[in-house]
Design goal:
mainly alpha; 50% helix; 4 helices; single chain
Amino acid sequence: MLKLAHRTPMVPEDARALVDLLSGHFGIAAPQVRFRVRSYGKAGPLGRYIVLPRERMRPASGAIGYLRVGIVVHEFAHILARLLHGRVEHGLQFVQVLDAVLRVSQPLWEETR
């Protein structure tokens, strides 16, 4: 499911909407979503913001540095993991949170493919 998410392009408006929906589902305050040109994703250290690439991924562009579902879900999972478990990087607790976020989000983004 994660590979499919990383192959699914998004536009900034849909990324914001997905973050808002996930925040509501998990009962947390929605982090601010910031966009940068050709950026890597980043979750703010206090869980208040997510930085995402602004430019939508195109089939020939590859995934790195472009906006896609996988990066939105990944960065949201960092926010949620930090709130649930403290500072968590890419360990087992993060992967468990990421799996939960993917399961919840999949119906939301698969219908737009």
